[in-house]
Amino acid sequence: TLVDITGAKYPKKYKEQKITPMRGVSLLPVLKGNTLKRQEPIFWQFGQGKAMEYRDWKIVKHGNNKTWDLYHLNEDPTETNNLAKKMPKKTKELKALFDEWFKPFNR
To answer: Residue 107's pLDDT is what?
Structure first.
């Protein structure tokens, strides 16, 4: 977003070290009052917790828990109805996307 706002060029190298390519979506359209519909998942890792949001779905793994929670955000925006046991295929599908994203960090 900051690169988009400032018009800066994102570097490929800094002091002869390769820079990880920029990933993500600029929020500039939102700041200009437009809506933004993400096409790609958004992932995050916080302490020992992990989460991913993709379209209307969100998976969350708290701390050292071995299981993931699954929420349908359009129907349950406050994330109170964990659907993981009712929808194991959806949970597994989203977990696979998270695992693929997390590979470079899991060394």
So the answer is: 60
**What's this model's pTM, rounded to 2 decimal places?**
0.71
13 vs 19: CA distance, rounded Å: 5
Q: How many CB atoms lie within 10 A of CB 71?
A: 22
Length of the chain: 107
What percent of the chain is modeled with pLDDT above 70? 98
